[in-house]
Design a protein that fits this description.
It contains two helices and 13 strands. By secondary structure, the chain is mainly beta.
Length: 181
């Protein structure tokens, strides 16, 4: 397993070891002991899965406020996405900065995003299956989103007119949100 630290403290790209032969392949998608060796010491409590049928679907930017903030371990199991993490921690040196990484069913890369970040992804292919583990249960009262095209953050989504949910269309700018990190 290889890890790559990003410019955002705590956000880590993980490339698992994949073993293959003429029959197919095998990999460990999660190993608590190995993750702890990389500084990822969280207790995951819920697995989530989404499916997006159309290329150009954008989901995000989402997070949960304290006290129900979530760390996430993310992977794309089918198709291809541009995955984005945005630092929302006001006291961080990288506040409002973001990183993106291409996650695909083929490259099997994963992204770990700690508490204090917004997350979103854009589908780069049709028929995308996306899975992630979280260390806090979903809380409707803590569920928040910010505009994917917030000019203060300025994520380069590489698309002009994404397919959005009503929730994401009406999300506030970060400066107008009640983000409490």
């Amino acid at each position: 397993m290889k890890i790559e630290k990003t410019k955002l403290e705590g956000v880590i790209i993980i490339e698992p070891d994949v073993y293959g032969d003429e029959r197919g392949w095998f990999m460990e998608s999660y190993n608590k002991q190995r993750m702890q060796e990389f500084g990822i010491d969280v207790e995951f409590v819920q697995d989530n899965c989404s499916f997006s049928s159309q290329k150009g679907t954008l989901r995000g930017l989402h997070f949960q406020n304290k006290p129900n903030a979530q760390s996430k371990l993310i992977r794309c199991t089918q198709g291809k996405v541009l995955d984005v993490a945005v630092d929302l921690r006001k006291d961080s040196l990288t506040f409002k900065q973001w990183i993106s990484v291409e996650l695909t069913g083929e490259n099997k890369k994963q992204l770990f995003i700690p508490k204090g970040f917004a997350h979103g992804f854009l589908t780069l292919s049709d028929n995308v299956e996306f899975q992630y583990k979280v260390d806090e249960y979903y809380s409707k009262d803590s569920d928040r989103s910010i505009r994917f095209d917030d000019p203060e953050i300025n994520v380069d989504w590489q698309i002009e007119d994404p397919i959005l949910s009503d929730k994401d269309k009406s999300a506030p700018l970060l400066k107008d949100s009640d983000c409490n990190f």
